Each structure stands twice: as C-alpha cells, then as structure tokens.
From TrEMBL:
Pfam families: CCG (PF02754). The keyword Signal does not apply. It comes from candidate division WOR-3 bacterium. Residues 3-83, 146-196 form the Cysteine-rich domain. One of its GO terms (molecular function) is oxidoreductase activity. This is CoB--CoM heterodisulfide reductase subunit B. Keywords: Oxidoreductase. The keyword ATP-binding does not apply.
Length: 201
C-alpha cells in the first residue's frame, strides 16, 4: 500500500516526534510513503483571509500527489481538513477546477485522488484486526485521552462518511488496539486553540 506523505509546515518543525512515530508505524504495517520536496503549505493559514489563494495552494499539492498516482496521507489535522475540503470542492465544480488549473503554471489537478489522515489509513485501510497482529508490547496499564479537535473529522462532507463527527470512535479504537485504555473527559470536543495561535502566541 502506497501513499504520498504530506508533512505541511507544522509537523517538520513542531511535530518531529509525531513524524518519526508515523514513519516507524508505517514501516511496521507495510505502508510505503512517496515523498516529494515540492509539497508546500496546504493553505490553511491563509484560508480565513483569502479562500481563493488557499484553494490554489491546496490544488497545487493535490496535483503533485496525482503525478505520483497515489492518494495523499496527512499527519496534521488542519492540513487534512484543508486539502480534503479543497479536493471535494474542486471535484464537484468543473468551472472552478479549470480556473484553478489555469493558474497552476503547467500543472493540472484532475480530481483523481483522496486525502486521508494517517490515523484514518490505519483505521480503514490497514484495519483494527490487522493492527492487532502487529502489537508486540501491549500498553496495558496505560490510559490515553484522544483529542479529535476541529479538523480531524470536519467538514464531515469532505470525509465521505468516515466516523461520526459528533460521536467519533476511530481514535478511541486505535488507542484500545495497543492494549491501553481510552478515557473520555469533559469538553473533549472543544477547539485546541491552534486556529488562533498565529494571532497571539
């Protein structure tokens, strides 16, 4: 199984441990990553200011993945949401897609790929039952609290019915497959604050 790995801006700087873990897990379960140095920002930081520029930035990254003929794997939930939504919009709007393609400077977005978060790939494509076979050191006695946040499952229409954005289970089940307990907590569905990080850090 092969995916283009999209790291975006934040993961290489603030989530290097997350990237390393994802690479190790991918290697263990037989997931191959295709990498391309041309990938750039997904467009999320400018989305609230300039939707057209954000859409163009996303389309460029999607077009790069299409050149490799593989679907796109994201590690960052904001990247996932931005790219998946752009993918949905451009697939559905032929006229807008052509306008965007005219601005891609020789590249073309055709709408032939899907965008998936790494956790979704583990959950859907590898599968919980298969993942159980890879657990060699169960995390029994540990408890983890998943944070689904704003972007992992929203906008829900961009994710094709994956999980329930109001009552999600996928991260909980991925935690449990490791042998650890998944615990719930009050206000689990609140925003982490990342969306305003650039305004006042």
């Amino acid at each position: 199984m092969k995916y283009a790995l999209f790291l975006g801006c934040t993961v290489p700087v603030r989530g290097m441990n997350y990237e390393l873990s994802a690479r190790k897990v991918a290697e263990r379960v037989g997931l191959e990553f295709v990498e391309d140095e041309r990938f750039s920002c997904c467009g999320f930081p400018v989305k609230a200011v300039d939707v057209e520029t954000s859409l163009l930035m996303s389309a460029r990254n999607l077009a790069i993945a299409e050149e490799h003929g593989v679907h796109l794997c994201t590690l960052c939930s904001a990247c996932n949401s931005t790219l998946a939504e752009a993918n949905m919009i451009l697939k559905e709007d032929d006229e807008l897609r052509e306008i965007v393609n005219e601005q891609l400077d020789g590249m073309r977005y055709e709408g032939t790929i899907e965008v998936k978060h790494f956790a979704r790939i583990l959950y859907e494509d590898i599968g919980i039952e298969t993942l159980k076979d890879f657990i060699t050191n169960p995390l029994k006695g540990f408890a983890f609290a998943p944070h689904y946040g704003c972007h992992y499952l929203k906008p829900s229409e961009a994710y094709g019915g994956f999980d329930d954005p109001e009552d999600p289970k996928s991260l909980d089940e991925l935690i449990k497959v490791t042998g650890a307990d998944s615990i719930s907590y009050e206000e689990w569905d609140l925003c982490c604050g990342g969306g305003i990080l650039g305004i006042k850090e």
